[in-house]
Amino acid sequence: MYRKQQFVFRKDQIHKATIRNYTTSDFNGLIEIQKRAFPPPFPPELWWNKEQLASHIDNFPLGALCVEIDGRIAGSMTGLIVAFDPAYPHHTWDEITDEGYIRNHSGLGNTLYVVDLCIDPDFRGFKLGKELMNAMYEIVVHLQLDRLLGGGRIPTYHKFSEHLTIDEYVYKLTSGEYKDPVITFLLQCGRTPLKAVNGYLDDKESCNYGLLMEWKNPFI
After folding, report:
1. Does 123 have pLDDT greater than 80?
2. The model's pTM
3. If both were cysteines, with which of 22, 101, 186, 206 could 66 make a disulfide (CB 3.0 to 4.6 Å apart)?
4. % of the chain residues with pLDDT over 90
C-alpha cells in the first residue's frame, strides 16, 4: 500500500499533507469533494458513487489515492492497469475505465491509466494535483510499468475549433502560444501528448476530444 507524508505550500501557508490509499471510511468525503469541485450544471450522476469507490479498492487498492491535510480529505486520484498498444490508441473513457468501475483492471497490463483527478476547491493553490500525479509516477516505477497514461479534456478548444484542427491546437498548446487549464497543467506535471482521440468523451467544450498524454517510465 502507498503512504507518504510531506509539506505543501500556498503563499505563506504551510501544511503537512499525507498521500495514502483511500478506504471505505473516506467515501463520504470523496463524494463531497466531487460535489464541490463539479457543481451544477455538471451532471450529478457523473460524481463518484459508493459502488464505484468500493470497486476501486476491491480491484486495485494501490491505485486509489487521496491526499489529506490536517485530517481533512483534500483530493483524490484513481487509476487502473490496462494493456495499451500505442499503435492502436483509440478508445473512449467509458471503455477503458469500465465507466469508472475499473472491473477491467489487469495486473498483467503495461500501463497505469488515470481514471480521475479531483481537488477540493478549498485546497487549490497547494499544487495537490501535481503531488498526486507524482505519487502515481512512483507507482509506475514501483510496478515496473511502461507508462502512466490518461485522456485530458481540452476545455478551451471550442473557442478555436472553427479555424484550427485539433492537432494544430495541440501544437500551439505545447509551443506555449496558447494555454488550456487542463492540458497546460498536465504538461507542467511532465506528461507529453500522444494522440488526440475524437469521441473520447461527451464534452462540448472539448468538441468531444480527449488528448491522450503519457509519462514514460524512465527506467524502462
Report:
1. yes
2. 0.96
3. 22
4. 94
